[in-house]
Amino acid sequence: MPPSDKVTIKVKILEEEYHEITIDWSDGQTALQRQQSVFRKLQSITGIPIEYSYFLIFAIPEERVGWSVFYNSDFKLKSHGTLTDDDRFNKEKVMSIIENGDEFIICSDLRCSDDKHLYCFYTLIHTDFLDETDCSEAICHHKESRAFTNRRAQLVADEALNGQLNCLLPNNRSGNEREWVNIYLRLNIYQFIVAVCKQHEPFRQENSGFMLEQGDSRARG
What we know:
alpha/beta
């Protein structure tokens, strides 16, 4: 098999061991099936239910030209239904973004959709951006810890909590942003939705702000 028919990357939560993800372009699967296998692998590592994982983006070195957002076709929120492009996770696009042997830190963020349910999305951040001992512009060691990741996984799956959000949050986010924040504070989840580390915010806004805005708008009911 030619080397170009297979690519293996390594991913991990900070301070844990790496897990390999192999994408084999000759395995007979469709682009969508390969994409979903990546989401299932991330679920097995993070514990975040796949049905509440909205999309995946890569933060990669600047010299690479590829950039894309991959939407999870198993995402449960009803407004996601038309987002899946069955051919999006194709060889040309993916190989413009990642290279064999790349290592990434799994970063997850928590958001609340306009139909008032919590969900997560993933950013896989290349280890070129990692400071092993301290927070960097790219990665907050506290926010991306196992403890924080576990808490996000618990929150998106907590149907009692999400039921409270559905009852308490105003139906329209626009014009009611302060009330939404007050409800987050009341339910003690604000710190998991808002980034806790100012050091890495400029990087995240510069590299994924457009995608996050696009993703949030598409999650609206």
